[in-house]
Design goal:
By secondary structure, the chain is mainly α. About 65% of the residues lie in helices and about 0% in strands. The chain has two domains: about 25-120, Rna Polymerase Sigma Factor, Chain: A; about 150-210, Arc Repressor Mutant, subunit A (Orthogonal Bundle), CATH 1.10.10. The chain contains ten helices and no strands. The termini are far apart.
Length: about 210
C-alpha cells in the first residue's frame, strides 16, 4: 500500500494540476505506459501515475456507475471511492485480467453497495425538459424519447441483469470480461443476458406507446 496520501478525490487533474502533470519530467514515459505499468507505479506511491490512470478511466467509470445507479448526485462520489480503492489496493491487482476489468469490477461492487442504501429513483429516466422543445428537430426528439424508453426498460431489470447488459452492449466487454467484472461463471453471464434481453423486449412491447 502506498505510504503517501492520494490526490484529493474529485480534484485529480483539474485545472493547473493537469498542466503540471503533463509538464512533469517523467510525464511522457508515464503517458505511454500501459495500465499495468501505471498500477505498478501506483504501488510505489507515484501520484502522476495515479492521475494518468484516473484520466484514462474516469469518463468510462462515471458512465457505467451512472447507468447502474441512476443517481447523478452520487455517481462522482462512487467513482472517487473506486479510485481511492485503486490507490490503496493497487498491490492487490493480480494481473490475471485486464486493468480495465479490475477497475470495472470495483465500480460494479461499489455501485451495488450504493443501490442497497439508495434504490433506483421512481423514474430513472426523468430529467428537466427542454426550455424550447420547438427548437429541437423532430427526429432528435424521437431518438431522445426512444432513449428514455430504453432507460426505463433497463430500470425494470435487477442490478445484476442490468449490469451485464450495460457492460456487454454499451461498454463492449466480452462475456469472459463481464464474468470477471461481476465475479460469476461465463455461463451465468450468458444466462443473465438471455433473460435480461427477453424481459427488456417484453417490457418495450408492452409499453410501446408510453414515452
Amino acid at each position: 500500500m502506498p505510504a503517501s496520501e492520494p490526490p484529493p478525490p474529485g480534484r485529480v487533474l483539474r485545472g493547473m494540476e493537469a498542466a503540471d502533470a503533463v509538464r512533469a519530467p517523467d510525464a511522457l514515459p508515464a503517458a505511454l505506459a500501459s495500465d499495468a505499468e501505471l498500477l505498478a507505479r501506483i504501488v510505489d506511491g507515484d501520484r502522476p501515475a495515479f492521475r494518468l490512470l484516473y484520466l484514462r478511466y474516469h469518463a468510462r467509470l462515471y458512465r457505467f456507475v451512472l447507468r447502474l445507479i441512476h443517481r447523478p448526485e452520487l455517481t462522482e462520489e462512487v467513482v472517487n471511492d473506486v479510485m481511492l480503492t485503486v490507490w490503496q489496493k493497487a498491490d492487490q491487482f493480480r494481473g490475471d485480467a485486464a486493468v480495465a476489468t479490475w477497475l470495472f469490477g470495483i465500480a460494479y461492487r461499489r455501485g451495488l453497495k450504493t443501490l442497497r442504501r439508495w434504490p433506483l429513483p421512481v423514474d430513472p429516466a426523468a430529467r428537466p425538459e427542454s426550455a424550447d422543445p420547438a427548437a429541437v428537430p423532430e427526429r432528435a426528439v424521437d431518438q431522445d424519447l426512444e432513449a428514455v424508453r430504453l432507460q426505463r426498460g433497463l430500470a425494470q431489470l435487477s442490478p445484476e441483469h442490468r449490469a451485464v447488459v450495460e457492460l456487454t452492449y454499451f461498454f463492449g466487454h466480452s462475456c469472459a470480461e463481464v464474468a470477471a467484472i461481476v465475479n460469476c461463471p461465463v455461463n451465468t453471464v450468458k444466462t443473465r443476458l438471455f433473460h435480461a434481453r427477453r424481459r427488456l423486449q417484453d417490457w418495450l412491447m408492452e409499453n410501446a406507446n408510453n414515452a
